[in-house]
Write a structure and sequence with these properties.
single chain, alpha+beta, two-stranded antiparallel sheet, two-stranded parallel ribbon, 3 helices, 4 strands, about 50% helix, about 15% strand
Length: about 80
């Protein structure tokens, strides 16, 4: 719950318009979430898991977040 809440707050903050050289700029982001130790206990494995979750978030809808799921890794391994 804490990770989801933080992701939501980050996405809301990023979505606020920025003023750059007199121009209003709106950006967006997607977030992939992996949590130790369940999704990996080493930084390399956590980053890989977060990357797969990020890909899932981008496929679902831009400007959202997704948690890593073991099925994502199994799907990647089968490809």
């Amino acid at each position: 719950e804490d990770a989801a809440g933080l992701a939501k707050r980050l996405l809301e903050a990023i979505a606020d318009p920025y003023l750059l050289d007199g121009h209003s700029v709106v950006i967006g982001a997607s977030i992939g979430i992996a949590m130790a130790p369940g999704d990996g206990d080493e930084s390399e494995k956590l980053l890989k898991s977060a990357g797969m979750a990020l890909s899932r978030a981008k496929l679902d809808a831009r400007g959202t977040f997704a948690f890593f799921e073991a099925a994502l890794d199994a799907k990647a391994q089968s490809r």
